[in-house]
Amino acid sequence: MHARFNFTDIEKHPLRDYLNSEFHARSPIPISSPLLVTHLAFQHDALTAQDERENVLRLCQTSTCKFIENSSNHLMLDAGSFQMRWELHTEYSSYTFFCPLRVGEPLDPDATALDAVFPDWLSAIPGQLIVATHVELRSTTDVSPESVFAGLSPTSNRQMVVSRIANGAGWVFTDFMFDNGFSRFLVLDDSLAGRQPGRAVQRLFEIETYRMMALLGLPVAIEVGHWLNGAESRLAELMDHIVQVDSPEDEGAVLADLSKMAAEVEHSVARTTVRFGASCAFNSLVWQRINELREIRVPGYQTLHEFMQRRFLPAMNTCAAMARRQDDLSNRVARNSQLLRTRVDIELKRQNQEQLTQMNKRAKVQLRLQETVEGLSIVAITYYGSQLVHYLVKGGKYLFPALSPEIATALSIPLITILALFGIKRMRKSLALDTEGSD
To answer: Longest C-alpha distance within the chain, in Å?
Structure first.
């Protein structure tokens, strides 16, 4: 009989349990109507998970809390009168509060799930509030869609968004306007089953959160657009100057201006790449969550998808267009700088060629002068050498009285000349060999 396998005998990856927990984390909460749900998102800078957790746990100092989920980056607790889920994301932290209602309790347009939360704790949440969304979940047996339509004012300036979700199993009403600081949704449960109400509410919160986070790129895009208009005009002027310049000094000045502009463009790209990239990612998530709602159009009203196409999509297209314009300007500046550098390099090579030609001419002149000097050197060596012979013979006339100094001097001149010529040629050959060896 085989022994049962034991995981303790195998070394596990240190992140295995963590990754699997993250995969199952943040699942939709099973909720049912009637219910008030309020979602807050705070953009944070340099906050750690520990700082956030410590702030969340202060809520338990005023209430008896029961932890339903408890992880490093998210937790859910039950404080009796309400439940709260906290999640730490890359750029923001979200707090979602759930407060049940009594069946048949009338609609209160100002009620939120925060009414049961300690106010001082809410004001101490770190970061800047970017999203405040309220959802009221009701059953169609409690609040009928017809009663909601009857309460809508046809003369209101607010454009209502109404759609049926989950293939008609629920209703969503909103106008995306701020009311007492909150954007509000009314969700009517007609035949939502299981966790569908929780998924619907969670997707609405994610749509609103991702929408606001994506729109953070719009002011940046507008600012970059104004700067790009001036930068593109300056680049066009520099291109005109490149055509007109006719001296190396002017080319160097234009190249310096192009290098300065390239630095400005790269600084702008580095400053905005993260924001534009985040807007693109959040934009994709918004459309994904809208598609997951499986909307059915209500005649006479916009769906969430249509509303986003009219109001949200143009802003995202602006961000994408500014990012493309930045990249295009960067490429154009780099391309024009390369063209100008090529032109400057060609001019430098031409000047170097002229200098080499002049150096070659000077070398030939120096060679002729050297040959002339060598000829004069042979004459001088012959002269002084013959004089030495003359003095030697003259001093030795007592030993060789028959040898005439003049004859000896005359006979030595050709010999001295040949020896001097041979010595100079050998020295030139030796110098040439040394030069080739050094090369």
So the answer is: 158
* Measured CA distances, 303 to 148, 174, 202 (Å): 16, 10, 18
Q: Is residue 422 part of a domain?
A: yes
Amino acid letter for position 256: A
Chain centroid offset of residue 303 CA: 35
pTM of the model: 0.76
Strand partners, 99: 36
Range of the domain at 343: 217-353
Q: How far apart are CA 336 and CA 438, in angstroms?
A: 42
- Do 290 and 340 lie in one domain? The reply is yes
**Which of 353, 379, 400 corresponds to the end of one domain?**
353
Integer Cα distance of 80 and 61 in angstroms: 13
Choose among 384, 372, 369, 391: nearest CA to 417. 384
Gap between the Cα atoms of 113 and 96, Å rounded: 9
Nearest to 140 by CA among 111, 160, 169: 169
How many domains are there within the chain? Answer: 3
Q: Tell me the CB-side half-sphere exposure of residue 230, using CA atoms within 13 A.
A: 7
C-alpha 41/C-alpha 127 separation (Å) is: 9
The answer to whether residue 164 sits within a structural domain is yes
Q: Residue 44 falls within a domain, yes or no?
A: yes
| 3-state SS class at 318 | helix
Query: CB of 38 within 8 A of CB of 114?
Result: yes
Do 181 and 47 fall within a single domain? yes
Of 211, 241, 267, at which residue does a domain stop? 211
Cβ–Cβ under 8 Å, residues 261 and 238: yes
- The answer to whether residue 5 sits within a structural domain is no
**Per-residue pLDDT of the chain in tens (439 residues, 90 and over written 9):** 555 666 666 788 888 877 777 666 667 778 888 999 999 999 987 666 777 778 888 888 767 788 887 777 788 888 888 899 998 888 899 999 999 888 777 767 778 888 888 888 888 888 899 999 999 999 999 889 999 998 887 666 678 999 999 999 999 999 999 988 899 999 999 999 888 999 999 999 999 999 999 999 999 999 999 999 999 998 888 888 777 777 777 777 888 888 888 899 999 999 999 999 999 999 999 999 999 999 999 998 999 999 999 989 999 999 999 999 999 999 988 888 787 777 777 777 877 888 888 888 887 777 777 767 766 777 777 777 777 777 777 776 666 676 677 777 777 778 877 877 777 777 777 766 766 665 5
Q: Which of 18, 215, 205 is nearest to 95 (CA)?
A: 205
What is the rounded distance in angstroms from the CA atom of residue 317 to the CA atom of residue 41? 25
- Cβ–Cβ under 8 Å, residues 214 and 283: yes
